[in-house]
């Protein structure tokens, strides 16, 4: 399996770090692309620099490199996850604005009919945000707000991260044991 992981400047970078760690443990090939603000938020919220983040991925692509493999539909992947996804990136994807590698990779994922999961992080949501999400949902993009459930009775931040990472993996049909499912 081969997954593109995009990290943008929305808060909740801890979910991206958790996702990359789990995908690495599952030995799933990851192609990481990080926006400038994504790099900033990972540093601010998680205390990790880009070099440390890159160690969690199979391949890192510079967001300015529009000639990278993930910018082409002929480069086969199983899909893409943007976690967290800023409203700027969500709007660019919704309107086909491929002005950097991250948004181009998302555009390619949509045009090739592959799975795209977006984990938006913003509150409150404006009508503009909701309309952009609706536009993407109508195209089959999975919108998974960074809003964990609490029926699992999480006790730590790591428990909450596991719930969100697990729900994200569910959308990609990747098996995991990160949380107890309802009714188990």
Automatic annotation (TrEMBL):
Keywords: Flavoprotein, FMN, Prenyltransferase, Transferase. Residues 1-171 form the Flavoprotein domain. InterPro entries: Flavin_trans-like (IPR036551), Flavoprotein (IPR003382), UbiX-like (IPR004507). FMN binds at residues 9-11, 35, 86-89, 121. Its EC number is 2.5.1.129. Dimethylallyl phosphate binds at residues 151, 167. The keyword Isomerase does not apply. Gene3D superfamilies: Flavin prenyltransferase-like. The keyword Transferase applies. GO terms for molecular function: carboxy-lyase activity; flavin prenyltransferase activity. It comes from the Bacteria. PANTHER family: FLAVIN PRENYLTRANSFERASE, FLAVIN PRENYLTRANSFERASE PAD1, MITOCHONDRIAL. Belongs to the UbiX/PAD1 family. Flavin prenyltransferase that catalyzes the synthesis of the prenylated FMN cofactor (prenyl-FMN) for 4-hydroxy-3-polyprenylbenzoic acid decarboxylase UbiD. The prenyltransferase is metal-independent and links a dimethylallyl moiety from dimethylallyl monophosphate (DMAP) to the flavin N5 and C6 atoms of FMN. This is Flavin prenyltransferase UbiX. It comes from Natronincola peptidivorans.
């Amino acid at each position: 399996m081969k997954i593109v992981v995009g990290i943008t400047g929305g808060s909740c970078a801890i979910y991206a770090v958790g996702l990359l760690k789990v995908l690495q443990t599952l030995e799933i090939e990851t192609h990481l692309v990080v926006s400038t603000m994504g790099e900033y938020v990972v540093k601010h919220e998680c205390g990790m620099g880009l070099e440390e983040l890159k160690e969690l991925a199979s391949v890192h692509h510079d967001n300015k490199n529009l000639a990278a493999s993930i910018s082409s539909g002929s480069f086969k992947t199983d899909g893409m996850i943007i976690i967290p996804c800023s409203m700027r990136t969500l709007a660019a994807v919704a309107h086909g604005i491929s002005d950097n590698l991250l948004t181009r990779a998302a555009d390619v994922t949509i045009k090739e009919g592959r799975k795209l999961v977006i984990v938006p992080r913003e509150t409150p949501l404006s009508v503009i945000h909701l309309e952009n999400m609706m536009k993407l949902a109508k195209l089959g993009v999975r919108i998974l707000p960074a809003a964990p459930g609490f029926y699992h009775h999480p006790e730590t931040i790591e428990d909450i991260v596991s719930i969100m990472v697990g729900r994200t993996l569910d959308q990609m049909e990747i098996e995991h044991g990160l949380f107890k499912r309802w009714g188990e």
